[in-house]
Design brief:
By secondary structure, this protein is of the alpha+beta class. The protein is built from 1 helix and 4 strands; from the N terminus they run ββββα. A 4-stranded antiparallel beta sheet has the order 1-2-3-4, with helices on one face. The longest helix has 16 residues. The chain is flat.
Length: 71
């Protein structure tokens, strides 16, 4: 692992995978663990972490998804 950050009692850890991709391990305050895989670079993973931190900090921050009916 090469980077750990913490926000709103959620810890983030960037992990280099053997296939040269990057994953992010999220550990929630209640101990739940979630691993997000498939980042092409550490930079991409860090950008995702920063976006996630904003969403955790401000529940009004939201990125539209394909399920929102928007194209």
């Amino acid at each position: 692992s090469c980077h750990i950050g913490r926000m709103a009692d959620t810890a983030f850890e960037i992990v280099a995978q053997s296939d040269h991709t990057i994953s992010v391990k999220m550990t929630m305050a209640d101990g739940r663990l979630r691993t997000i895989t498939g980042f092409a670079s550490e930079h991409e993973a860090i950008a995702w972490i920063e976006q996630t931190k904003r969403a955790l900090h401000d529940p009004r921050f939201r990125t539209p998804t394909k399920y929102d009916g928007h194209s």
